[in-house]
Amino acid sequence: MTAPAGSALGRIIRRPEPARAAERCDLCGADLLSRHRHLLDERGDGVLCTCQACTLLFEREAAGRGHYRLIPDRRVRLPEFSREDLTALGVPVSLAFFVRQADGTVMAHYPSPAGATRWEVDPDAWKTIERRFPPLRELEPGVRALLVNTARGAREHWLVPIDDCFRLVALIGREWRGLSGGGTVWPAVEQFFTDLSARRKPAGVGGTERSGDG
């Protein structure tokens, strides 16, 4: 998935932290809170920012409206994957996220200073991982992702909203310096995952967290 230059997702990727004031809902034009939800536009392959009122409309209709789908905001930490699991998924790097497509294929994405590169995951390997980690069957196409972090000795595996993954891509692009990343990118990545932990729900716990960031 790429972010069109003028899309809300493009704004997520480009803007500095903290979020700019006076942003508006992409559907009705109302002012946005600093933390708000997003819609996936399946027709345009982009993401739209939504105010509380518009979010409620889509929360009441789980299937979405037309080509718009509300991006879930539930974050679940999974048990640790083994080295063999990661090898089977073809993860060559310390940070990667995996997104199921509408046709059932799974694409792996590698956040880098230049954006996110991607490759297709072997279908048999993914089925094996799903059997070992049943929550992966909850990956709704396009809107949720498996996020893997093994950077600097970390062993974190998450189910997250897709917009979290694009924030991570944005963070790396913004903080990376030189060939190795410099002195700020890895502390920023660690803080990103600390923030995920603050908003998580244990695997298997129901409910929805109202904590999506704009």
Automatic annotation (TrEMBL):
The lineage of its organism: Bacteria, Bacillati, Actinomycetota, Actinomycetes, Pseudonocardiales. It comes from Amycolatopsis pigmentata. This is DUF5947 family protein. It comes from the Bacteria.
